[in-house]
Write a structure and sequence with these properties.
Distance between the termini: 65 Å
CATH architecture of the largest domain: Roll
CATH topology of the largest domain: Nuclear Transport Factor 2, Chain: A
Number of strands: 8
Helix content: 25-40%
């Protein structure tokens, strides 16, 4: 294989490879070169463009960001692999900050609920609940139920689209099935996922 074939990465190849972990020798902004060839085509190389008889061009910021992100993820994974006890004992998922606003997707709602259960905080769990139309008495009853749920702990949470079951016409967007009971008999709780004012909430 000649030098040009070894060093040049075509534009299509870079698009495919940018989704994969990159070697630490390829440093975003310096090691990766974007070159314009004499025929106007674009090539990428980890050597200087002059070696190819090409003119250097700026590397797209989006590509540099993706490379840097993959490098960071690769480094974090390597650290956890080197110290597995850290991953097992120190990692606790959390819920988004309230400043992040409401859940804008069903998947985000699922992540918020998982985070609230991980924190064991009923107030964070209540942030994801659909309170519209509840009287004060109903709200107090629901809060007590949420408090019991938070205390039981979450084993598993699954999201099901409302279109695959019945009841999709009642305003529900999906269904969440929670399996509770880390330190006691397991309990399955079904929650309706409601879309309200562009946000997603859970309702018992």
């Amino acid at each position: 294989m000649n030098t040009r074939a070894r060093t040049v990465i075509t534009l299509l190849s870079v698009v495919a490879l940018s989704a994969l972990p990159w070697s630490h020798s390829v440093q975003a902004g310096s090691g990766l070169q974007r070159c314009q060839n004499a025929d106007g085509s674009i090539s990428y190389t980890d050597r200087g463009c002059a070696v190819l008889g090409s003119k250097p061009m700026p590397v797209p910021a989006e590509l540099l960001t993706r490379i840097a992100s993959e490098q960071s993820r690769e480094e974090q994974t390597a650290e956890l692999d080197a110290f597995p006890e850290i991953a097992e004992t120190n990692y606790t998922p959390g819920r988004r900050s309230p400043l992040g606003g409401c859940a804008r997707s069903k998947q985000q709602l699922l992540a918020d609920l998982r985070g609230a259960f991980a924190l064991g905080n009923v107030n964070r769990l209540a942030e994801s609940y659909h309170w519209v139309g509840k009287s004060n008495r109903q709200a107090q009853q629901q809060m007590l139920q949420l408090e019991r749920m938070a205390g039981e702990g979450l084993l598993e949470a699954q999201l099901f689209d409302a279109q695959i079951g019945l009841g999709a016409g009642d305003g529900s967007a999906a269904m969440l099935q929670l399996t509770l009971g880390q330190d006691q008999p397991r309990q399955v709780v079904d929650l309706d996922v409601m879309r309200y004012s562009g946000c997603y909430f859970a309702r018992i």
